[in-house]
Amino acid sequence: MSGDSDVRSLRISKLERLRELGHDPYTFEEHPQTHTPEEVRANYSSLEGQTVSMAGRVTALRVMGKAAFFDITKDAQRMQVYVKRDDVGELLWEVFGLVDLGDIVGVTGEVFKTRTEEISIHARDLKVLAKSLHVLPIGKEKDGQHWYGLSDVEERYRKRYLDLMSNLESREILLARSRVVSATRRFLDERGFIEVETPILELEAGGAAARPFITYHNALDLELKLRISLELHLKRLIVGGLDKVYEIGRVFRNEGISTRHNPEFTLLELYQAWVKMEDIEQLVEELCRYVAREVYGSEVFQVRGVTLDFSKPWQRVDLLTEIEKHAGVKPSELQDLQSAKSAMDRLGLYSEDETAVGGIIEKLLERFVEPTLIQPTFVENYPIETSPLAKKHPSHPSLTRRFEGYVLGREVCNAFSELNDPIDQLERMQRQHKMLQEGDHEAMPLDEDFIYALECGMPPTGGLGIGMDRLAMTFSGAESIRDVILFPTMRPLEQD
């Protein structure tokens, strides 16, 4: 810490000298920018000898007596600048001498090529627009790459601003995430879906199996919960006659952190009346094709060494069939709790805490089936115990009309033909509520107003949930959900 403190003290003294020279960086409110570095390079033949103006962060600095070269970078675009004492005068030369790596500067000058044929700006005017008081992780390496970035992964997540300025790969992943979200929104808008907003603070957080965060409203003297899902309010809108609705919003789940889980994440949920599960599968296929074209310009692209093909229909597989294929557990072994637990024991999995066959089925899915689902695949027919809001399968009452979509071994979406039978829904919610009262913090509470809405009549409806962070991981190749969230949840650093 003492080294950083010394650097900060030195740079503050340079800042004070700038102020003495009448060049306080923080008094400049703007700097005209006529061109970007990319525009200068693309139009060199017409801009040669012309005066241009731009600004950026100093990312390289090479002083050679009474002249110097330095690089400025803005929006990941770099431009070399040449400055000479005889051209800018004594005052600006002293100002330039107070510039450090990481400072933000504005320059004005003529476009030219150096003897090494590098397009550059010959500076005639220079302003320091912000002084960096710390040594930043920027510079050139021997391989010629402009940024070398942060090597500490934890530091990248804690100080995302440093990560963005110093790691090109990280920057591209996060920008890809923005393009994925924007493309998803355009896709739905073009198909007539209405974007809405629903409450974040709820009396009871339902619509998913998750433990909520609890907060308190002082004025109402009321305990509230942060939403864990968007589902139940969006279905109310279907009841109200809005046939195609969606929301892209933050949800909050009081659970562990992993490469696939963050306590707060962005969820897309959409609901469409008068369609069934297969229609939603087709919608997912069309959405992913659209997003692929927007992000990569093609429906076939490569991430992490794998070529993904979204141009053709997704593979459709049956959940129990896949478990038998990859885990060797027959559907007949998953008819009752005891035989299902015996199957887990045979496979070396801990079964002591299991209380439902449905939970065991999904654990077998996660352990043995998910890693095999590399190309886009829909897994269909999930157990009713873990699908309290989905229609029953007409031929198999213990299963539901539900599917999940997988790519690269990761779940990217969850969808079903929505349960619109209020009597059945009430019974399932009552069972979930009983589990909640018995200590299952992830069980769903009873939402009486939602039941009333269903009793008013909800048309046949298809619903879909997509974790936008996981979808961004798929299209960017990110290994961890933290790589696609600008400010992921982190444990505070211990103070000395």
Rounded to the nearest angstrom, the radius of gyration is 29 Å
What's the CATH class of the largest domain, please? Alpha Beta
Integer average pLDDT: 94
- Going by helix content, strand content and strand pairing, the class is alpha+beta
Helix count equals 15
What share of the residues does DSSP label as strand, in percent?
A: 15-25%
How many domains would you count in the coordinates? Answer: 2
Biggest beta sheet summary: 8 strands, mixed
Question: What general outline do the C-alpha atoms trace?
Answer: elongated
Spatial order of the strands in the main sheet?
A: 6-10-11-18-17-16-15-14
CATH superfamily of the largest domain: Bira Bifunctional Protein, Domain 2
CATH topology group of the largest domain: BirA Bifunctional Protein, domain 2
Low-confidence stretches: 141-147
Q: Helical proportion? A: 25-40%
* CATH architecture term of the largest domain: 2-Layer Sandwich
Q: Give the total of beta strands.
A: 18
Q: What is the CA-CA span between the terminal residues?
A: 12 Å
